[in-house]
Amino acid sequence: MTDGDSLVGWADLAYSSRHMVFEHCADAIALLDPYGDRFGDLNIAVCQLLGYTRQELLQLPVSKLFGHQLADLVVFSQAVLEKGKGWTNELSCNCKSGERIELDITGTTLSIKGQLQIILVLREQSRQRYQRDQAQTERAMRGGLIEWRNILNLFQETERDNQLLLSAVGDGIYSIDHQGLATFVNPAGARMLGWEAKEMIGKNIHRIHHHSHPDGSHYEVEDCPIYRAVRDGVVHEGHQELFWRRDGSSFPVEFTSTPVIADSRVVGAVVVFRDITERRTTELQLQNALDELKQLKVRLEEQNAYLQEEIHIEHNYREIVGQSEPIRKIIKQIDVVAPTDASVLIHGESGTGKELIARAIHQASKRNAHPLIRVNCAAIPAELFESEFFGHIRGAFTGAVRDRVGRFELADGGTLFLDEIGEIPLDLQSKLLRVLQEGQFERVGEERTRKVDVRIVAATNRNLREEVQAKRFREDLYFRLNVFPLQSPALRERPIDIAPLAMHFIKEIGKRLNLPGRRLRAVDMERLQRYAWPGNIRELQNVIERALITSQDGRLTIDLPDDLTPSHPSRGATAAAPVILTDEQMRNLERDNTLAALQACQGKLFGKEGAAQLLGIKPTTLASRLKRLEINL
To answer: At what angle do helices 498-513 and 522-530 cross, to 10 degrees?
Structure first.
């Protein structure tokens, strides 16, 4: 055997000896991982003290053993980790038998693989007292009569100390014999129950305070967990029970009923109970706060869903483009009205950028930190108007499988943009007027009145004065909306802006389609400026997008419907004078073009190769146009 082998052998022997000393030590020693809530190792004495096997204790969370004093255990562990050592006699541990034993605990730190662990030495307080008493008794026997008198005084003082301790405890404590009669009641318990302690001695405790369930029904003695501990010798706990006071009032408690065993038989039980009224109140407040937080979360999710939906809606442009006199007038009006909370009614043809004006008003207002919620009134079925505006509760109508927040509630604190306001049914206009006047509404199917603070910006392509005269629009609602009217000019009224708008669309759409560097020829720009633009800015955007898609070698091909100007005029020919159409001719032209699209796609309105795609407009705009042009499918 080499010297190295000898050293290894001695090291193994030394380790084995140390492990045997630890394993068979009379004191209960355990290695606690304070971060993993587990014992890393423990000796036989710990198993004997707690009644568990080693495997059970290694798998059992330490917090399970000290669950009733988890906060105190955490405080003690933190103190030991900070100071390197510590001692406490204020912790008790749950044994496997259900018994709770008071402990003296000494803790020291030990670093294992760079992480601090805690070595706990556990000593049962009652056993230590017994051992001290035994030692004193032996000394008394050796010391004679004087020592016997001293030991008698010691027992008397111990009994007196126990009585003082039980009297000072804030929790209610009483003991009962095997018949359920009170043999001891501490002052705190008597005070909580509204009795004098001496009045309770010898009486049936169940009939005094535990005779009814929370709903008032009778609580049979056989079902009482306090008495069950006397019958089966097992610890019983109650967490949501009611105790009744002498004056007939009640209070919620949690309690533990522990059997008292002498000479292998149950002779009674000790009950410790605590008034949890304050805790229940705190839990209720916390639950209410959580419910409110849940409602706010749902509302934020609704707002997020709406905003995500808005992101996918293709807006015409990000800023107002143009230098014409009508545009400068609009910008001045926005600067005047935006800082106020006045209602704004935007008039103008379809495709003139009414929504862009509404967004500019909102962004320049003091409400810009809150959402701008858009509602296209022309795209909402009549039977869903009220639900869309005000929301509904679950079960309010067929298909209402959950609560839904309406657009008014989503816009609370912000701005609500009502596009195509003239499409709102007459019977709903009165409810809309109430919200505008009082800021109050009810969800469909709900009786609760809710309040909102919303600014209204509305838009229409109809003549609402004529609608009022025809009794299709409420006059009071019209005047409520028309506080500050704005006119969104048609593109044909601002030909000077066609060039910068076209260049803006070429840049923005080209970036999206990855087609940079495209340019318009002078002849194409002239054609754009001569065209009447019945679809306004939206039509110009569609024309530019088609030109970008069909472009070849960086050259754009402008395709204008019903373009009366030749694409390649003959040399020396005089340019034809621009054709001026009346409003009726423009309406007929738009109607014929729409019918042609419907015929080309065989009546398919939406989706791929549908009429909306052929016309280059959104499905909601097509639905509004069919209604406005009175095209009956």
So the answer is: 120
- Scored b (16 or more CB within 10 A) or e, 428-445 reads bbebbbebbeeeebebbe
If asked whether residues 232 and 324 sit together in one domain, one would say no
Tokens 């934020």 found at: 300
* Domain final residue pick, 76, 108, 128: 128
Q: What is the mean pLDDT of residues 535-544?
A: 89
The DSSP element (H or E) to which 30 belongs, if any, is: strand 28-33
- Residue at which a domain ends, from 489, 522, 550: 489
Q: At what angle do helices 498-513 and 536-549 cross, to 10 degrees?
A: 50
How far is residue 372's CA from residue 368's CA, in Å, rounded to a whole number? 8
CB 443 within 8 A of CB 410: no
Range of the domain at 122: 16-128
CATH number of the domain where residue 41 is located:
3.30.450.20
Kindly state the tokens that stand for 188: 């705190």
* pLDDT band at residue 430 under the 50/70/90 scheme: confident
**Which pair of structure tokens corresponds to residue 60?**
């059992």
Q: Is residue 263 part of a domain?
A: yes
Q: What is the mean pLDDT of the chain?
A: 79
Structure letter (DSSP) for residue 373: E
Q: Which two tokens stand for residue 414?
A: 């912000």
How far does Cα 234 stand from its chain's mean position? 43
Residue 150 CA: distances (Å) to CA of 126, 127, 138, 158:
20, 21, 12, 12
> Cα(393)–Cα(403) distance, rounded to whole angstroms?
4
CA atoms of 460 and 345, how far apart (whole Å):
8
Could you tell me the end-to-end alpha-carbon distance of the chain, in angstroms, rounded to an integer?
Answer: 105
**483 and 625 co-located in one domain:** no
Per residue in 552-609, pLDDT (tens digit) is: 777 787 888 654 443 333 333 334 445 566 777 677 777 777 877 777 677 777 776 6
For the chain, what is the domain count?
A: 4
Here the tokens at position 28 are 């209960």
